[in-house]
């Protein structure tokens, strides 16, 4: 079993007595890995910190905890890290403009941007500070653009500048708008290189990763959250229900539920956690289309329209190779059962017919977009806490002070700007919950 192999590896760096000082980089940690057997013959292991989910936020948390001298075990249901939301987004480093002042999204995005640029520079992660133009294409959108600037200023975003349409179009000759907000600190990065670096640094500091390992529930015993863990392959045929007995039970000192799309579903299966603390979850698919032409990209900056319900609008981003892409749109999806959520059985195919919805949206600010120039790219799914017609909801980072369970931290609704905020979220968790 992969989990047993991971625990065996973890055991090599943990204490044989309790507690022990682990050299200069280890603090005094009250952890041992001891195997016991429950009455139902399910192996039980005591561990220090468990991070559920190896997306970019889970990886950042694992790195941060390991840097602070904690023994960390990362459990991921997929064969590798970052296979879901973390690898299916715009790869944009956001400035912190869109979010209400003093919200977690605002504070963690601004702090996360600073940490992320520094990390990318220090670790040679490919990135580029391109700058962004948020554009109004009709007069009715100007008040919304002014509101975004006010939010950005209150959130501490530096360098924001409101531009007349003529000035913006001199900066970007292919652009069509009547006013624009310039954010010079926005940028792009290679998210895979970032995640690979976070994994490597976490492992260098003793963190252990167990892939193809799914946490499907838990229960409280002796005031600790006991995690019920399965090999992912054993769940493939459980379409009509859940297996009755886990492969192993883990008893950690600290659990960080960073399961992304399935975080609320998992929390509902934590016995002893009251449902009133678990927000409703919604899923929003978003497609990306790339520009087929291989010539010089028509834009040098990121181009964003005024935000729409459920997202930031069909915007223009560039990757580090100069490939232009448009998206994502918003398509609400329903009827996702728990097993599909745990096993990431979402439909990630790009519906080519949705391109017809993209053309009129893009031509609002890029009138020269040619028919037939959009090619299917990829699809992502946002883990949202607000549905159609509802106001956006802030990140939820929930610990004992809220739900009353020692050692349990739930992360709910970590959508955009989750990538930008990832290192700040990790810093926040370590500061508050260790």
From TrEMBL:
<feature type="domain" description="FAD dependent oxidoreductase">
    <location>
        <begin position="48"/>
        <end position="432"/>
    </location>
</feature>
<comment type="similarity">
    <text>Belongs to the L2HGDH family.</text>
</comment>
<keyword id="KW-0285">Flavoprotein</keyword>
<keyword id="KW-0560">Oxidoreductase</keyword>
<keyword id="KW-0274">FAD</keyword>
<protein>
    <recommendedName>
        <fullName>L-2-hydroxyglutarate dehydrogenase, mitochondrial</fullName>
        <ecNumber>1.1.99.2</ecNumber>
    </recommendedName>
</protein>
<dbReference type="Pfam" id="PF01266">
    <property type="entry name" value="DAO"/>
</dbReference>
<dbReference type="InterPro" id="IPR006076">
    <property type="entry name" value="FAD-dep_OxRdtase"/>
</dbReference>
<dbReference type="InterPro" id="IPR036188">
    <property type="entry name" value="FAD/NAD-bd_sf"/>
</dbReference>
């Amino acid at each position: 079993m992969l989990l047993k192999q991971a625990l065996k590896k973890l055991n090599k760096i943990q204490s044989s007595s309790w507690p022990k000082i682990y050299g200069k980089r280890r603090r005094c940690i009250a952890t041992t890995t001891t195997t016991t057997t429950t009455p139902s013959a399910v192996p039980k292991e005591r561990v220090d910190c468990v991070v559920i989910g190896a997306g970019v936020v889970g990886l950042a948390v694992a790195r941060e905890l390991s840097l602070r001298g904690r023994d960390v075990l990362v459990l991921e249901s997929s064969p590798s890290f970052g296979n879901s939301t973390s690898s299916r987004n715009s790869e944009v480093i956001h400035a912190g403009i869109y979010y209400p002042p003093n919200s977690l999204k605002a504070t963690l995005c601004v702090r996360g941007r600073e940490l992320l640029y520094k990390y990318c520079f220090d670790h040679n992660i490919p990135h580029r500070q391109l700058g962004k133009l948020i554009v109004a294409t009709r007069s009715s959108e100007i008040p919304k653009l002014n509101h975004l600037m006010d939010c950005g200023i209150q959130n501490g975003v530096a360098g924001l500048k409101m531009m007349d349409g003529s000035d913006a179009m001199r900066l970007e000759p292919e652009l069509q708008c009547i006013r624009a907000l310039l954010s010079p600190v926005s940028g792009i990065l290679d998210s895979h290189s970032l995640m690979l670096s976070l994994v490597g640094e976490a492992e260098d500091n003793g963190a252990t990763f167990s892939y193809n390992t799914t946490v499907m529930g838990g229960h409280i015993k002796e005031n600790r959250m006991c995690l019920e863990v399965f090999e992912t392959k054993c769940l493939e045929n459980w379409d009509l229900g859940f297996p009755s007995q886990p492969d192993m039970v883990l008893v950690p000192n600290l659990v960080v539920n960073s399961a992304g799309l399935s975080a609320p579903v998992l929390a509902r299966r934590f016995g002893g956690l009251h449902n009133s603390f678990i927000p409703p979850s919604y899923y929003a698919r978003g497609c990306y289309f790339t520009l087929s032409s291989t010539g010089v990209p028509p834009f040098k900056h990121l181009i964003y329209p005024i935000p729409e319900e459920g997202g930031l609008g069909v915007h223009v981003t560039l990757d580090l190779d100069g490939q232009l892409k448009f998206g994502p749109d918003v398509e609400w999806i329903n009827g996702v059962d728990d097993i599909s959520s745990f096993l990431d059985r979402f439909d990630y195919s790009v519906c080519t017919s949705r391109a017809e919805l993209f053309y009129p949206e893009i031509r609002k600010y890029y009138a020269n977009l040619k028919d037939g120039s959009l090619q299917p790219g990829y699809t992502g799914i946002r883990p949202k806490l607000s549905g159609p017609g509802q106001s956006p909801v802030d990140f939820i980072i929930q610990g004992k002070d809220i739900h009353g369970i020692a050692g349990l931290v739930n992360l709910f609704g970590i959508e955009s700007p989750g990538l930008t905020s990832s290192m700040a979220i990790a810093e926040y968790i370590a500061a508050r919950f260790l």
